[in-house]
Amino acid sequence: MKNLKKIILLHLGMLFISCGNNTNYERNLATAQKLFALHGEEKIDEQLALVSEDIKLYTPMYGSSEPLGFDAYASILKGYHDNFEDIKYNANAWLPGVDTLSLKPDGSVRTYGTWTGKNSTTGKDINLSGYWYFNFDSEGKIIAQGDFFDYGGMMQAVGPKNPVLVMLKVLPGKKQEMIDLLNTPDGLQATRNFEGCLSVEAFFNTETYTYYVYGDWASYENYQNYLDWRFNDDESKMAQQVMSLCVGGEKGLIPIYPNSDYSSFNKL
Question: Which CATH class is domain 2-158?
Answer without folding.
Answer: alpha beta
